[in-house]
Amino acid sequence: TKTIGEQVLIIGVGNTAMDCCRTSLRLGGKQVKVMARKPRGYFKASEWELDDAEEEQVEIVVNHSPREFVINDGQLVGMQFDVFEYHVDDDGKLQQELIGEEFFPCNDVILAIGQETAFPWIERDIGLDFDQWNQPVVDRATYQSTRAGVFFGGDAAFGPENIIWAVEHGHQAAISIHRHCQNEAIDDRLPFGMNLASTKMSIHEWSFSNDYEGANRRQMRHVDLKERFNQLNIEVEMGFSAEQTTIEVERCLNCDIQTVFTTDLCIECDACIDVCPVRCLTITENTDEPTLRAALTVPAQNLDQPLYVSAALPQTGRVMVKDENVCIHCSLCAERCPTGAWDMRKSTLLIPYAVDEKTAKWQQKTA
């Protein structure tokens, strides 16, 4: 559509809803509201998308669940919503309580919510089987349906996932389609899996900048609020300036380059502990994990991130402990260590690709 009513309701609160509400403003909407069933902490939209929408005066209404469209004389005049209060119970589950209802007038409603897949164009007598959710039955290894030569992937095959899974499905289905077109067995493929190889680095390769002051993500420049509505196709985000780009790339933690500790070389001089800018290293007595976490130079509070705990050190029998959750891969420990107990290694992720079938080798892809 090229036009829209002045009062617009957007149902849903994901990134698609953010696109819909901001586009509605550009198409002529004056009062645009995003209607959310739950509190803000449960929104699926990215925080910056929400901020950008609110900057453009989009109102986000929380705890309202759509009940029905209200139509007078064949014309949409608004929507009726149930209003809820939410609380977290003793089991940590979100519970809702209906506290009332509310009417919102509108000229247009945009449904920006997940919809179920539908296959009305597929005849049910051509050899395709469907499950109880009306999804095609698909082999999870080859992505072929119950009819040879017909393949599915993404939401249409296994329900809602993210784009990463959809790309993987497409990659695997492409291998099957290629084999099918070559009259080869589609289930004859390289073993699924991956391997991680690491390589020792020389000091000139891992000696990075030593400026590790905390830097937040740069705020990207935006077109002025008044100017961005002049044309529908104006890009709001102007990109980073050269100065912003320079600062932004300095935030990279070089995740493919990791610290490696050799227990037998450590002399417990504490040089690495002194130089660490985030204090993620500690030499201490080995004990149970809760006590160990509390005994670190900075207590390790992220229980989802395992600690690195070395074998007993040769001098005292204590252990070197590293909190991987706060390490910034700066390499200062390796640079400072007088014996080379700390070192840096670059990791490479090895993944099988379709082109490897001719050579039966792994294709390298840097992590």
Give structural notes:
- With 367 residues, the protein is α+β, with helices and mostly antiparallel strands.
- It folds into three domains: 7-111, FAD/NAD(P)-binding domain; 116-189, FAD/NAD(P)-binding domain (3-Layer(bba) Sandwich); 192-208 and 254-367, Alpha-Beta Plaits (2-Layer Sandwich).
- It is built from nine helices and 14 strands.
- The strands form four sheets. A four-stranded parallel sheet has the order 3-2-1-7, with helices on one face. Strands 8, 9, 13 and 14 form a four-stranded antiparallel sheet that branches. It has a three-stranded antiparallel sheet with strand order 4-5-6, with no helix packed on it.
- β5 and β6 form a beta hairpin.
- Residues 360-367 have low confidence and may be disordered.
- Strand line-up of the largest beta sheet: 3-2-1-7
CATH class of the largest domain: Alpha Beta
Number of strands: 14
Determine the number of helices (DSSP H or I, runs of at least 4 residues): 9
Give the tally of structural domains.
3
Could you say what the CATH architecture of the largest domain is? 2-Layer Sandwich
Shape descriptor: extended
- What would the average pLDDT be, to the nearest integer? 86
CATH topology of the largest domain: Alpha-Beta Plaits
Structural class: alpha+beta
Low-confidence stretches: 360-367
Outline the biggest β-sheet.
Answer: 4 strands, parallel
The fraction of residues assigned to DSSP E strands is 15-25%
Spatial gap, N to C terminus:
44 Å
Tell me the series of helices and strands, N- to C-terminal: EHEHEEEEEHHEHHEHEHEEHEE
Please give the share of residues in helix. Answer: 10-25%
Tell me the Rg in angstroms: 28 Å
